Amino acid sequence: MTAATGFGLFLVVTLILLGAVVVTGKRSLRRRHLTLVVLAFVGLGLAIYYAEKLGEEYDLKSAGRIFPVHLAFAQITVYAYLLPVITGIMTIKAKCKRTTHGRVAVAVILLTVVTAVTGLWLVLAATPL
Ligand code: HEM
Q1: CB-side neighbour CA atoms (13 Å) of 33
Q2: 30 lines ligand 1 (CB under 6 A)
Q3: Ligand 1 atom at minimal distance to the Cα of residue 106
Q4: In this structure, which residue's CA is closest to atom 19 in ligand 1?
Q5: CA distance linking residue 53 with residue 51, whole number of Å
Q6: pTM for the full predicted model
Q7: Per-residue model confidence as pLDDT tens for the chain (129 residues)
Q8: Would the CB of 37 count as within 6 Å of ligand 1?
């Protein structure tokens, strides 16, 4: 599989899985929710793996300021995924409202979309090697 195909495939798979995570969370299907969270994290890991391989095919510095901007978003997003994990565990322990966890989780998904858009922008602006 080429890096571009792998990245596109796993990005779409991850977004679909995250959608299913939100639906199962809203419907209180706890076991299915947690299984889908694990699958979404695996999908995200594979998307990042292929994104890095794709990056090796471009002179990313040639893209200008979008390169550090995308890197910053990518790092913030990866760490931000700790927030739904922490608030999810707190929801199980009844130390956090499920609506708070839901809002935090949706914010992190939106951050993921912004990161994907800046990543696409980076690749389109960079010179292929
Ligand atoms: C990417 C990660 C996650 C996303 C996007 C996500 C999303 C959501 C959403 C949207 C809800 C519904 C909230 C509402 O009704 O307003 C929910 C509920 C819930 N989530 Fe998550 N979640 C994630 C990770 C986790 C994790 C890691 C845990 C636990 C370790 C967890 C545990 C729960 C629990 C216990 C509920 C309430 C379900 C119930 O009422 O039985 N979530 N989640």
Answers
A1: 19
A2: yes
A3: 5
A4: 25
A5: 5
A6: 0.92
A7: 999 999 999 999 999 999 999 999 999 999 999 999 999 999 999 999 999 999 999 999 999 999 999 999 999 999 999 999 999 999 999 999 999 999 999 999 999 999 999 999 999 999 999
A8: yes
